[in-house]
Amino acid sequence: MERELARLDRAHLIHGFGSPAQTDRDGTVRLVKGRGIWVWDSEGRRYMDGVASLWNVNVGHGRAEIARAVAAQVRAIEYAPTLLGFSSEPAIRLAARIARMAPKGLTRVLFTGGGSESNETVIRLVRLLSSLRGKPEKSGIVALTRAYHGSSTGAASLTGLETFHRHYEPMMSGVFRMPRPHCHRCEIQREYPACALACADELEAIVARAGADRIGAVIAEPVQGVGGVIAPPPGWLERVREICDRHDILLVADEVITGFGRLGKNFGVQLTKVIPDMLVFAKGVTSGYVPLGGVILHERLFATLLDAGDDFVLHHGYTYSGHPVACAAGLANLDILEREDLVRGARRKAPILARALRRLAHHPIVGEIRTAGLMGAVELVQDRATEAPFPPERKIPWRVRQAALERGLILRAGTSFVVACPPLVITAEEIDDLARRLDEALTAVERELGL
Question: What is the CATH number of the domain that holds 351?
């Protein structure tokens, strides 16, 4: 059967975020079972899931409570829309619960099927709200360099990674790009704290060039995930909020990765005093057990929709927005987060992960080591003195990732780094085990390089 499944996989299933030619040649790792932070492949090999699959399995694998909630909802009613005047109890209860977890004032939830759909929703809401306020030209969106906001056309246009644009042009117009707050490698060649948050002030310069009447929103992750675990310095988001307020620009927090405990708070933005106008979520809301995402709107934005009157129709939504089975999974997932105190647990374990990864600093190919909550990145460099990265064609992050996989650890490879983002249920001992396996993988690649 294994050989037949491998043949069918190559013959029929398209795998994203990888080389089709390579997958066709080498095949895939077929996962068949998961428990806690561990997964097993079809040949019985066990792996530590060091990236919570795709940054999403926060409560760990194999949670019977979620399976029971899903089965019960399927038996009751398997599908009910949240469009055209219909609703369901799981969607209602989950929306209310998320609103209670969110920053003050964020009270209205529009469900989607995942992160990309959520950011497509943001694009449409920014345009809609601007139009209803009599400012239809105020629809542009400012996003950061190397940000990741999804891979559908609009969301990929917000994404600041060139690989998501090449071959897919033209991208959506009206996207403006500002430097990300990466103090270790400042994109505007300044030094923190003497810079006085000059990278945030670049937003003011964009507004001056483009005109405030053309910019409707700024979108940012509290910590860049796919971009390499880049956390802004204190005060950066507050400065961005001030500039947005001064020019009547909405601030959108993309919490697809950072939401539901990853940074030791319900949402990453709660580490600051900033209240965004919209908050995007997905991944951790169900811990990946069933697809679900959404956008939380501030009450004052929803008031704009109400003020439009009975003749206005919100022509936006998806067939599976607020799917009752997905929402049932979300409620069971949030029960686990609360009952096991996993959000506060992530806060307690964050320094343990930071210390474990810092022990890798002796490796000749390791540069900056970055952590934020239970996520971390290890930068891989060709020259530690200059911190110059390896040429992309050498694929060093991918080689480290493969070496880790051979040692039973799943990591994510970026452009010049590898990322760890384990389930929130990971223990201190397992964190040390993760670092040990990565240590061995780094040593193996260094031997290949003759170091």
Answer: 3.90.1150.10
φ, ψ for residue 95, nearest 5 deg: -60, -45
Predicted local distance difference test score (pLDDT) of residue 22: 93
**Domain ranges, residue 34:** 2-59+341-448
Where does a domain end: 339, 373, 391? 339
In this structure, which amino acid lies at residue 343? V
Which of the listed residues 322, 339, 356 is the one where a domain comes to its end?
339
11: helix, strand or coil: helix
Q: Which tokens hold the place of 3? A: 């050989």
Grouped pLDDT means (10 residues each) for the chain, 451 residues: 92 95 94 98 97 98 98 98 97 98 98 98 98 97 98 98 96 98 94 95 97 98 98 98 98 98 98 98 98 98 97 97 98 98 98 98 98 98 93 96 98 97 98 98 97 90
DSSP readout, 114-171?
A: SHHHHHHHHHHHHHHHHHHTT-TT--EEEEETT----SSHHHHHH---GGGTTTSPSP
Tokens 């990765």 belong to 257
Number of domains comprising the chain: 2
Predicted local confidence at residue 1, as pLDDT: 82
Token duo for residue 192: 């923190």
Rg (C-alpha) for the chain, rounded Å, is 22
Question: How far from 28 is each of 20, 45, 68, 300, 395, CA to CA, in Å?
Answer: 11, 14, 30, 48, 19
The CA angle 12-15-20, to the nearest 5 degrees, is 85
97 HSE (CA, 13 A, CB side): 18
Contact (Cβ atoms closer than 8 angstroms) between residue 184 and residue 197:
no
Does residue 350 share a domain with residue 211?
no
DSSP 24-49: HHH----EEEEEBTEEEETTS-EEEE
Residue 101: φ, ψ to 5°: -80, -25
Helix, coil or strand: residue 292: coil
